[in-house]
Amino acid sequence: MLQRLVKPILSRSFFLFGARGTGKSTLLRELFSSSHGVIWLDLLKPNLEEDYSLDPSRLTRVLFPDTRWVVIDEVQKVPKLLDVVHDLIESTQVKFALTGSSARKLKAGQANTLAGRAFLNHLFPLTYTELDESFALHDCLHWGSLPALLTLPDDLSRQEFLRSYAQVYLREEVWAEQLVRKLELFRRFLPVAAQMNGHILVASQVARDVGCDIKTVQSYFQILEDTLIGFMLEAYDTSIRRAISGKPKFYFFDVGVQRALARLTQLPVTPGTSLYGETFEHFLILEFHRLNAYLRKDFQFSYLRTKDDVEIDLIIDRPGQPLALIEIKSTAHLRPDKLRRFLSISKDFRGAESFCLSQDPQRQRIDHVTALPWREGLQAIFGI
């Protein structure tokens, strides 16, 4: 049984947000498997969703004196339920575990988000530490790390799973929730967005490729964020005179899903290629993003690109600690000449700590940069 890093605090109600297939229901069933007085409501079941949509107050009538917890799966299906949940939190001792794969309807409907009355947690695809002995870098770079992949026997099954996942997302998260008016336009947008993964986001370029206006592209990226399919990495806010880009990058929440949307799952991720380097960087950015949430570090992430095309892959603002500058290299044999540009730009950040994370198994000190195997680098930066 895989041990997930997310640890909901059970002293009060909580949300557990995560994209479809990240294991939210499985985690809660493990969490409450030995508990008594737990009521489960799965709003993915059409009949149940309809019942509570027509009559949200029904929730008050299914509680019994011995009810301690109510688990509501995919609560965004019936946003008005949160008003009833709010009232029950205030008037009873019952606590709620609320899962969701989208914040879109909650925002759009100005739903009661229980501010201060429910802790917020996020669940992601599996990290390398959660996979433990099952972790294989090649597999994560090619297929991603959604939990269901562990049960599949071969690459053909994994490829079909990811293809189906992309279709399910279109059908259930976008079309069924009526998040877009023209599904075909959004369908054209997705592979373009996937191909832009990890690159500086130029909305006008995406709009030309898709055949729509810039505002539509911006709204589509917002949908991807709201449905937890990806996130923006903002440009570092700096006065460094050589900095140029103020545009963000967009990263999909899982390497495998991004590759499926970009129609790349049949293309091998071969060491030494540009695809390998980009995919390895994507993988590590996701590990930083997930560990930050799980360990409750409150780190803030950004990147920097100068007018000379010198880039810092990741800048980490760590409360109470020096700024961390991260260079990511996929090589297994790191040489000082590979860090020449990073060495130059990182010197402009006085007091910052500079790291290079790679697949080289040996630690090195290259000028002011600490070069570490990527696992050690994550451990050093997060203090684990």
Q: Over the alpha carbons, how many angstroms does the gyration radius reach?
A: 22 Å
Distance between the termini: 22 Å
Q: Major beta sheet, specifics?
A: 8 strands, mixed
Mean pLDDT: 91
Helix content: 25-40%
> What are the low-pLDDT stretches, counting only 5+ consecutive residues below 50?
none
SSE sequence, one letter per element: EHEHHEHEHEHHHHHHEEHHEEEHEEEH
* Overall strand count: 13
By DSSP (H or I, 4+ residues per run), the number of helices equals 15
Q: List the strand order in the largest sheet.
A: 7-6-8-9-10-11-13-12
Principal-axes shape call: globular
Instruction: Indicate the structural class.
Output: alpha/beta
Quick recap of the structure?
With 384 residues, this protein is of the alpha/beta class. The protein has 15 helices and 13 strands.
